[in-house]
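Our preliminary data section would be incomplete without showing what the modeling component actually yields. Below, a chain of 331 amino acids is followed by its predicted structure, encoded as tokens that our downstream tools consume directly.
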Amino acid sequence: PATNVNFSYGAAEIVRRRFFLIFWNTYRFFVGNALVDGWVPKKGDKSARREVLDQWILSRSNSLVKGVTEALDGYDAKTASEAIERFVVDDLSQWYVRRSRDRVGPTAEDESSKASFYQTMHEVLEAVVRLSSPFMPFAAEEMHQNLTGSGSSRTGYTIKNSVHLALWPSFNKMHVDSPLERQMEYLREIVSLGHSFRKINKIPLRQPLASLTVKGSSGFKTQKAELTNLLKKELNVKEVLFKNDGELAVDFNTKLTDELKAERSARELVREIQGLRKEKGLKLTDKIRVSYPDSAPNKLAVAAFSDLIRRQTLAEELSPGKILRIWSKRK
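Predicted structure:
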């Protein structure tokens, strides 16, 4: 009440782009892939083994519940809303979902990892939607009705199960893992240094590299293997080495072997094929035939990474040609 709040169409548009669209697209990613994979929530399902990313996001979401609840109990809506925005944008969208994209959909092969993602994401989304309902009542209602199976804008809302009548999320300290949160923050600091290195040296992330050396570090203190594997995937390297000397810094082995070059060409081909799938409006489950430009890099890529290309694009046939073309095998 003592502070002036600027409001305009321009300010509202900034918030829409910076938060609402990111939140909505995160929700749509979950719903769209869950429909494709035929996943439905099971109350109290504990069968899926949580991966390190799932454990981390559950910890972060419970920390969020605690912080937002305390802020609103103290009538501090600003602190509460900013905490929700940071969580959705920085933690949920730009880290958890981005690092989990290859765990779901028709091209994902690990059913246990897939189940763990869906169960975790559903729990987290349900909690965040309820936390955000005082700030975005209509969008929260739409998401809540769909996530809980209560109804939708097409079938009609079930007032009895409205998000505004739902129980406020409860803080579960058993899900809070402060050491893991600190280790993930440390990992993301290394990732930031790695991305900066690649940018300065003009090495695109799509180009795999042989190794990463992290100086000034003895490695991760908890769940070392899983966190190291996560670091490998994020920075697209085959090996991570730690050297406990000096300040925190990173260095890459930038020597490119024929295999590393071929892998990059394969990933470039996958990206272009996925672009054509999107242009043609194909479903995520549609099988395709592919004709690719008959160049030397493409030949090497297909020879060495045919399985990867087929799996990630749902291509049943790969044949050389003059230009990149795809045909749907939809019946």
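Residues 258-328 form one domain. The chain has nine helices and six strands. Preliminary results of this kind motivate Aim 1 of the renewal.
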